[in-house]
Design goal:
By secondary structure, the protein is of the alpha+beta class. It has helices at 7-13, 98-105, 123-128, 136-139, 167-173, 208-217, 275-288, 300-304, 331-348, 389-402, 417-423, 427-431, 441-446, and strands at 16-18, 27-33, 51-54, 70-73, 80-84, 89-93, 110-111, 148-152, 158-162, 182-189, 191-192, 197-206, 223-229, 239-247, 262-263, 293-299, 310-311, 322-330, 355-360, 375-383, 406-407. It folds into three domains: 7-76 and 432-446, Uridine Diphospho-n-acetylenolpyruvylglucosamine Reductase, domain 2 (2-Layer Sandwich), CATH 3.30.43; 81-192, 2-Layer Sandwich (Uridine Diphospho-n-acetylenolpyruvylglucosamine Reductase, domain 3), CATH 3.30.465; 197-414, Alpha-Beta Plaits (2-Layer Sandwich), CATH 3.30.70. 25% of the residues lie in helices and 25% in strands. It has an eight-stranded antiparallel beta sheet with strand order 16-12-14-13-19-20-18-21. Strands 5-6-10-8-9 form a five-stranded antiparallel beta sheet, with helices on one face. β8 and β9 form a beta hairpin. α9 (331-348) runs antiparallel to α10 (389-402). The protein binds flavin-adenine dinucleotide (FAD).
């Protein structure tokens, strides 16, 4: 359904499905567009049942959903407000997307300090989930590059938040899942570049030990990520491609990216995704890079955002959607934990497309509830299969807990209340900063408050 453009239209059309990227769970909500920084909290007048600010809905589970509630969609509040080319500090409204920021910044010789795997996320969403990129070891997470923002509370308080002003709200809002209020604008410290190009190397590996050896050898490279085939067993267990890149130092073209033309055309029927079709895809992907080691120069788009080339690719999973399992495990258990989890997945017979493996460094996050912890980070997408997917998610969540790790709320649809409270023991301190008019289906689930509104 098209998003209504005025509050009157939205209120008249009433609740309608609003999907996160995983398309699971499927909930109705009334979507109210925010156009102006002053819209909140007045736009809540006469509204019951809680509200939640949302951006592009690119989170996977229910962190951006509010069942039968009101979603305040910020994407029409997307103006650039100021830019200082000397410091690289950009000020913009929270509904601007990272794609829009890149269109402005790249021709001026600047780039995002931290990039997720899609550029179709908003500035507010990136702060609220304190997202990470391929350069966590060098740069930390997104919030580390946000010197200040404005947070508006449902009592009308407008708070400037930085490490000096309202530092508690600053920390609670970075990675605070939208629960502390509405971010209206924010500053972002961009980094200088001289070209769109990335000096790229792709290296095949077989197993976690080879992955770790390559990582050590290339510790000077800023961006690193690996795609792992987690269906293969035996000598091919945890084979993958290690992808490394640095912004090219050779001055080159600095133009805007073309808009993507491909759209995933249909809702794929669920049966298309099975162990055999996914194994075949993974094998083709592994061998797509014909040589064991490739060195080349490539544009930043395919390096940072390969999945953005096909819009709506989540339709590939059909109407039932998908769940993502994304965990971080500290170094001391990273290898054994990852092998145990991959073996459990292989045993379940549930297939995942190539999984993403990154490493987190020890740059501390500014956010109270931020996900990164120094060690391994793994992300796997699973189709929803009756009787198999959810029990597996429970087991994998418990294993992550045993290995001292945690799951990422931005990608979650399955964590239990016990798991959440163990992963984020600081949750009670965080809850003190929650805006009483704001909630989410994620929060109600992990607090055990479903149906309480
Ligand atoms: C293909 C793909 C790849 C991805 N890769 C990565 C990755 O590499 N690293 C990573 O960390 N994440 C990644 N993500 C997840 C994504 O970056 C985050 O979920 C991001 O927060 C989505 O932003 P959004 O604008 O879509 O926000 P939404 O999903 O709409 O909302 C996310 C959260 O932000 C809150 N929020 C949004 N706007 C505001 C506001 N103005 N004020 C207060 N709260 C607000 C919402 O309440 C919600 O809790 C990926 C997602 C996809 C689809």
């Amino acid at each position: 359904m098209a998003t209504p453009t005025t509050t009157e239209e939205a209120t008249k059309s009433g609740p309608a499905p609003f999907e996160s990227w995983g398309r699971y769970p499927a909930y109705n909500a009334t979507v109210l567009p925010m156009h102006w920084q002053g819209d909140y909290p007045g736009m809540l007048d006469g509204i019951h049942g809680g509200a939640l600010a949302v951006g592009m809905g690119r989170s996977y589970g229910d962190v951006c959903l509010l069942k039968d509630g009101t979603l305040l969609q910020t994407t029409s509040m997307n103006r650039l407000l100021a830019f200082d080319p000397n410091s690289g500090v950009l000020t913009a409204e929270a509904g601007i997307t990272l794609a829009q920021i890149l269109d402005f910044a790249v021709p001026r010789g600047f780039f995002l300090p931290v990039s997720p795997g899609t550029k179709y996320v908003t500035l507010g969403g990136a702060i609220a989930n304190d997202i990470h990129g391929k350069n966590h070891e060098a740069a930390g997470s997104f919030g580390n590059h946000v010197p200040q923002f404005e947070l508006v509370r449902s009592n009308g308080n407008r708070m400037l938040c930085s490490s000096r002003e309202n530092p508690d709200y600053y920390a609670a809002t970075i990675g605070g899942m939208g629960l502390t209020g509405v971010i209206t604008w924010a500053q972002l410290r961009l980094k200088p570049i001289v070209s769109r190009k990335i000096d790229y190397e792709g290296i095949q590996f077989h197993g976690i030990d080879e992955f770790l050896a390559i990582k050590k050898q290339y510790s000077h490279v800023e961006y690193t990520v690996a795609w792992v085939d987690c269906l293969s067993t035996g000598k091919n267990f945890a084979r993958g491609i290690f992808m490394l890149g640095d912004h090219s130092k050779e001055p080159g073209e600095l133009k805007i990216s073309p808009k993507p033309k491909l759209v995933f055309p249909i809702e794929a029927p669920g049966f298309m995704l099975n162990k055999f079709s996914i194994a075949a895809f993974n094998t083709v992907f592994f061998h797509k890079q014909m040589k064991a080691h490739v060195k080349t120069v490539q544009d930043y788009e395919p390096f940072f955002y390969p999945l953005d080339a096909v819009q709506k690719w989540n339709r590939m999973y059909g109407k039932n959607g998908l769940v993502q399992f994304q965990f971080a495990i500290p170094w001391e258990h990273a290898k054994e934990g990852t092998i145990a989890i991959l073996s459990e997945i292989a045993k379940s017979g549930l297939a995942s497309f190539l999984a993403v493996l990154k490493t987190f460094g020890d740059v501390p996050s500014f956010g109270l509830m931020s996900f990164p912890l120094s060690g391994f980070m793994f992300a796997l997408d699973f189709p929803i299969k009756e009787g198999v997917t959810f029990p597996l998610m429970q087991r994998l969540g418990d294993m992550t807990r045993e290995f001292g790790g945690r799951l990422y709320s931005a990608k979650d649809a399955c964590m239990t209340s016990d798991q959440f409270k163990a992963f984020y023991p600081q949750w009670e301190r965080f809850a003190r900063y929650k805006d009483p008019a704001i909630t989410s289906s994620f929060w109600e689930r992990v607090m055990g408050q479903e149906g309480d509104r």
